[in-house]
Structure formats: structure tokens, C-alpha cells
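Now for a specimen:

…
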Amino acid sequence: MKKKERKLIGAAGIVAVLFGIGPKVNAMHIMEGYLPAGYCVAWGILCIPFVIAGFLTIQRRVKRDRGAITLLAMSGAFIFVISSLKIPSVTGSCSHMTGTGLGAILFGPSVVSILGIIVLIFQAILLAHGGLTSLGANAFSMAIAGPVLSWLIYHACQKCGVKKRVSVFLAASSGDLFTYCVTSLQLALAFPDREGGVMLSVIKFLGVFAPTQFPLAVVEGILTVLIVIGLEVYARPELKALEAEKGRAL
């Protein structure tokens, strides 16, 4: 491993540890024991195909290009750091960024499913952020649904000739917002409104997170663009190798 790569991984690890040490607060991840058991199992089952695809993709990428480990580690650290920064929202809840757009742009959504689940497990155990019983639901919204939309938007923008930095911003911010839309749907399905049903419940949950999540999505988009600019300067060989691997996969 090159000296530059060791420094990059070390810096990411230090930042992750510093931000990971914090007070226990209520967070936007669906908390432990909040969802009925049937919903926990159902969302977990829906995650299985994505996890298998992610594992196989990571295995293939690392086997062909050991340098991809550096970018994988950085993408995982980025998810852990900014998704651990919880901003108080209304009604005693919290909002936070997701950080999954970067990994989706670099590796595709299936790889992010693995990175996201690892992050969610560590957050549930170490930070009381989310929970193990709600892991499937949280993973589907943050590590699968959001990254899939980010990946689709990024590639759609690239095909339409949109500048790369604008594409990155739109992909990361949209993926962040979509994560919260999916989480609101998950909560609404489990706890529909007595009069308006699921749709009214979705609107209520979206209203809880919207005041803080919209500006957070913009911030996440900007941060992701800055990270990509940094990678283009300090990790250009790794990015070129990753693009070559994508070409072989296609």
C-alpha cells in the first residue's frame, strides 16, 4: 500500500472516531423495537438480494484491483461520519445526512448496501443510533433505496451532458431526500393514520423531517462534490482504475 493511501485511510479513520464519540440522542434511524416484528422481517428479506449482489461485486472489484480497497474504505468512513451527525428536528426527532451518494457514484448501489449495513450495525451497537431489529428497514431506506436513486440520477445526468460536479450534487442530495421519503413510507405502513390511512401518515412523517432535511440534503450534495474534487486531485490513479473496471463490467 502506498504512503498516500495509508495517510488517506488513517485520516478517514481518525475523523470517524472523533465524530463517532458523542452523546446519546434520539435519531432519525428507526429505533430499536419501534417497528412490529413482521415489518422488521419483511424489510430484512427485501435487503437480501442487494446484499448478495453487493458482496459479489466487492469481491470481484477487489480481486481485480486491490487499490479499490482505499476508495471503499473512504466511502464507508464518509457514510459513517456524516450519518452520525444528528441535527435536532421537530417533535423531538432528529435528521442527519446519509453519505451514501458518494459510494453509489463510485461503485454502484449494490456495493453501498454492504457499506451501509456495516455502518448501521456499528451505529446501532456503539451509538444507540437505530437498532438491530430495525436494521432491515434502515438498511433498505439508507443503504439501498437512496443509493439506487443517486446512481440513476448521476448516470442520467452524465448521458444528458450535465457537468460532472452538478451531476454529483444532484445525485447526492436527491438520494439523501429519497432516503427520508422511504423511511416515512416505512413508518406510515407500520403506523397508518386512523382516519387518513397510510397516505396521510406519510405526509405527517415527511412533515416532521422536511424542515431540517432539505437544507441537510443541500449540504450533503456540496460535501460530496468537494470529496469528488479531492479524489480527482489526490486519488486520480485509483479513479482511473475504477473507471476501467466499470468499462469491463459493462
User: Anything to note?
Assistant: Confidence is low (pLDDT under 50) at residues 14-27. The radius of gyration is 18 Å.
